[in-house]
Amino acid sequence: MESDGFFQPAGEAVVKFNSNRNPDKDLPMNPLKGKSIVSLRDLSTDLLLLIIKKAAEVKKGMHEGCLAGKVLATLFFEPSTRTRLSFESAMRKMGGEVIGFTGTKFTSIEKGENLIDTIRVVSGYCDVIVMRHPLEGSARLASEVSSVPVINGGDGANQHPTQTFLDLFTISEYFGGFENLKVAFLGDLKYGRTVHSLAYALSMFGSKLYFVSPEILRFPDDLKEEVQQNGSEIFEFNDVEDVETEIDVLYVTRIQKERFGDIQEYRKVAGSYRVTPETVEKLGGKAIIMHPLPRVNEISPEVDKLENAIYFKQAHNGIFVRSALLGLVLGRINV
Ligand code: NCD
Known about the structure:
The chain has 335 residues and is α/β, with parallel strands linked by helices. The protein has 2 domains: 40-159 and 316-329, 3-Layer(aba) Sandwich (Rossmann fold), CATH 3.40.50; 161-312, Rossmann fold. It has 11 helices and 9 strands. It has a 5-stranded parallel beta sheet, with helices on one face. Strands 2-1-3-4 form a 4-stranded parallel beta sheet. It is globular. The site of N-carbamoyl-L-aspartate has 11 residues, from helix 3 and helix 7.
């Protein structure tokens, strides 16, 4: 059994100690305890590495049952499969309970209740909230009025930090780190919140970033400046054909149709790129292929058979990473 100060190895003296112990008593130096997770901008590389380390422990079977007695509320104002279900599964697997809603149809929001009041009330019913909302900045606002930590499950086109944690965890399983990695992002770099969060995180480690997208879906200028200031070199292309470098990670995204103000603009770029086994060869043949999913038609099903196509493994890692994050935020996993 692990010895992390919470679950002690079996032994008479320890058992006695444990029986008197309040599991919510402060564990030494857990910097994420009680903290909301809103944006990558709030996190240091040390914290990212801590989440990855704890996710690896959860994957090995450690920390089981540590969330007993805790309640997670999942508030999803936008569609989700992976984020909501993996958070809910993580909470249950770790011994906790889940409440929540998907879509607002049967909630008081239909009666005109605003987000602030909803969060004020729900935070009295649970120990942690995971929220997905179409408005950029909504997670920050929720964290400011909530009496419990708020984890951003995606706020509009802005940020999706927990997807980034599982992306980083998956990359680290293959490469052991992020320094000097060459990571190509292909797809909707304008509206893709997973790209915004992951590129920011990788820039904190100094990875080289290759942005490949149609002209109207370019990575935003203000974010470009930020990732450069963090220390990343960046390169931009319209087409993977133009990338003349051997790439380590190819991160593909779908076009975020729901974020387009004008559907004609969407039609101009729909179907404009598609990854095939030849694309992988073109990038040196070694790149692992990642995608936050769902995919629409931007990866050909033939790519699924390649050993480097790891998007389903990546999605499954969400359970370990989200379990670890809940354990840390709720102060039930020690550093
Ligand atoms: C992503 C999202 O919601 O931003 N999905 C996910 O959480 N895995 C990506 C997307 O919807 O394209």
